[in-house]
Amino acid sequence: MSWMARGLQHARVEFVMIAQEADVNVSEACRRFGISRKTGYKWLDRYETSGLDGLVERSRRPKSNPLQLSGDVVVELVKLHDGHEDWGPKKLRARLRRDGSCPDGGVPSLATVARLARRMGWTETKGRGRPQLPRALPTKPLSTGERPNRVWTADFKGWWRTGDGRRCEPLTIRDFYSRYILCLRPMAWRSTEAVRAAFVETFERYGLPDVIRSDNGSPFASVTGPAGLTRLSAWWVSLGIRPERTAPGHPEQNGGHERMHGDIARVIEAKPAATLALETVRLEHWRVGFNTERPHEALGMQTPGDIYRCSPRRLSEVKPYVYPRGFERRPVHQSGCIHLHGQHVNLSGALGGMEVGIEPVGENRWRVWFCDLVVGGLESKNGRIRRCPAAESPLPGNKDCNPCPDNKV
Question: What's 72-117's CATH class?
Answer without folding.
Answer: mainly alpha
